[in-house]
Amino acid sequence: QVQLVESGGGLVQAGGSLRLSCAASGRTFSSLAMGWFRQAPGKEREFVAARSWSGGSTGYADSVKGRFTISRDNAKNTAYLQMNSLKLEDTAVYYCAATDRGYGSRWAYWGQGTQVTVSS
To answer: Using one digit for the tens of pLDDT, what is the confidence trace for 23-48?
Structure first.
């Protein structure tokens, strides 16, 4: 089993920045592909970004390309989502996800989510 705990959410003005963190435990972190998803009120959960265990593969939703960056520190068992130039439509609960089946496989583990609210 893998436990994921997100942090770093909060209230920020449009155009501002936030960095989310996802601390993982329970498995060897370097074997996990990591991802971020979000769910806005009344909407389906959607993919935001993902990164393979080695960092050699990354992917982003079109809506966040050029503004968000996913990274990971295997020594700290932590993944990050740096969010810049935030927009009102980025308001959502952000979830960290992990898989031990390889990048692109089904996400097996989920965190509890952290709220990000972007205000005008």
So the answer is: 999 878 778 899 999 999 999 999 99
